[in-house]
Amino acid sequence: MPDLYELLDLPEDADTDAIEERLREQERTWAHLARDSDPAVRGRAGQVLADLVQARETLLDPERRAAYDNRRAENPVPAPPPVAPPPVMSYPTGQFTAVPSYYPHPAAMAPMPRRRPAAAGAVLALSGALLITIATFMPWDPRLSGTGNYWDQVSSQDSFGADSLPGMPLVAISLVLVTLLWALYFASSTPNQGLVWALVGIAGSLLLLPIAFGSLGTMGGNDPYLDYYGVEQGTRPGPIFAVIGVLLVFTGNFTAIAQNASRTGS
């Protein structure tokens, strides 16, 4: 059994409170090392913890401590031999001239886990793009023939707001661009890359502005003649969903910028 006072690094006349405090510190430290992945470290920790149990039972009991102090005085523990200095080795000029005296624990040398970029902004932007796609097939103007959806609205230049709506090529390009950018964003491995894709996504989302302005124009496209006779012309969920979708895309981009900007360098 090692010297209990040396184990705790305390003088022989240390009071009970100091011993109790040092025992708690040592027990916490070695209990953590007892869960180390290195078997040698776990073995050493188990031995020290057993010695700490012996120290607690001996030094915190007045009678046992007195008996231990008497035995210790009769049989003093020999001083450990001096530690030899590390050997000095010769190296070519420009390299180290001595062996490093400290090697960190393998856990300290392990690479830190890579932090994925925040995904809330990407989810919002992709949800907005999906909403715009759905809105193109919903009613935009019940006065028109067919379903009165987005494509009917674009093909009819007589309806209010139709001339300000982009045709199929711009819609297809903008949706594909937004979806592609955010798919690449999901594939980015660091917040820095996520921030770059979010900034690029803002620029690509500008293609959706004509959809938003044209949708706002079609919301007031009721036929005044039918209004005069009180004919119900129906709701127009298409432009409403399109405007909400555009807002979601922009909100998602700005959210991603804020999230990744706060996480860069962490």
UniProtKB/TrEMBL annotation:
Membrane spanning stretches: 118-140, 167-187, 194-219, 239-258
Q: Which domain of life is it from?
A: Bacteria
The J domain covers 3-72
Keywords, in A-Z order = Membrane, Transmembrane, Transmembrane helix
UniProt region (Disordered), positions on chain? 66-85
PROSITE patterns found in the cross-reference section: DNAJ_2
Name of protein: J domain-containing protein
The opening ranks of the lineage are: Bacteria, Bacillati, Actinomycetota, Actinomycetes, Glycomycetales
